[in-house]
């Protein structure tokens, strides 16, 4: 199998953009307000409130709802992966269908199989991210059960604060893994365009990056979440940090 130069460029662009944006988002979140930054603060507030409540039934229900959502995506990923692997045995038919679509670049069964195999790796990556997120949400459930009781005098305010921050950190990591799994879904949609044309693949990858950036740093929901803390989108200020 010999991929054309434009196909290699498109694939390299796809991988570079995905890895690059992941690192960019991680670094930029330290200096600019983003969804991940404000959610981290709100999770700390949640755990603080939890240590001062007599019952955590509502908190357990909220956590269970999020965990079920992640479980749904993990299960769906397995089904999608099974479908992609099934297509590997029908590459000839896939080529016939693709060639009937206008403006589709010429291809061959071995190239389609390579693309399908690569697509399957994306969903395997997503599955691992979702399942690791599920496990971490399970860890948070354990922490909820071990949380300092409202009427307990065995814990000082400092111990409660430490517990809240560390529990929020575990919850935050679970949220990040969930986000990474969802990000794989976004990029898999862009990857599908490669089956039609490498230029469309490059364009779709660019659109995905634009959508991810806008939702993370410029969305209305970010403004609403920041407003709950009296903040606005932009550089992080010392006053805006969670105390």
From TrEMBL:
<dbReference type="InterPro" id="IPR006747">
    <property type="entry name" value="DUF599"/>
</dbReference>
<dbReference type="Pfam" id="PF04654">
    <property type="entry name" value="DUF599"/>
</dbReference>
<keyword id="KW-0812">Transmembrane</keyword>
<feature type="transmembrane region" description="Helical">
    <location>
        <begin position="72"/>
        <end position="91"/>
    </location>
</feature>
<feature type="transmembrane region" description="Helical">
    <location>
        <begin position="112"/>
        <end position="132"/>
    </location>
</feature>
<keyword id="KW-0472">Membrane</keyword>
<keyword id="KW-1133">Transmembrane helix</keyword>
<protein>
    <submittedName>
        <fullName>Putative membrane protein</fullName>
    </submittedName>
</protein>
<feature type="transmembrane region" description="Helical">
    <location>
        <begin position="185"/>
        <end position="213"/>
    </location>
</feature>
